[in-house]
Design a protein that fits this description.
single chain, 2 domains, rod-shaped
């Protein structure tokens, strides 16, 4: 009876043992591949990041341009402080554009 139970357990547990041995053998490769994925940036991720940066810069330039246009309009109406602000915003826009190059 023990022989039959032992044989039956051997047959049934054979798959479990093979699975465990396979998992143990593949564990180092899995860890290495996950580490490489975490440490490297794919080309598409890099492109997405660059695109976000460009959009933010364009939004900032657009906002500065709108502020400068309002200041120029007030300057034309005779507001001296607005003239100074328009000049300052113009300088800031130039710096942002130079930084982008």
């Amino acid at each position: 009876m023990r022989l039959i139970i032992s044989a039956l357990l051997f047959v049934l547990l054979q798959g479990c043992v093979a699975s465990i041995v396979s998992d143990v053998a593949n564990a180092p490769m899995t860890v290495v591949s996950q580490t490489v994925d975490v440490l490297t940036t794919s080309q598409s991720e890099s492109d997405e990041k660059r695109g976000r940066e460009l959009r933010k810069r364009e939004e900032a330039l657009g906002k500065l341009g709108r502020q400068r246009a309002k200041a120029r309009k007030r300057c034309a109406d005779g507001d001296k402080d607005a003239c100074k602000k328009a000049a300052d915003l113009g300088d800031q826009i130039e710096r942002e554009q130079d930084r982008a190059r």
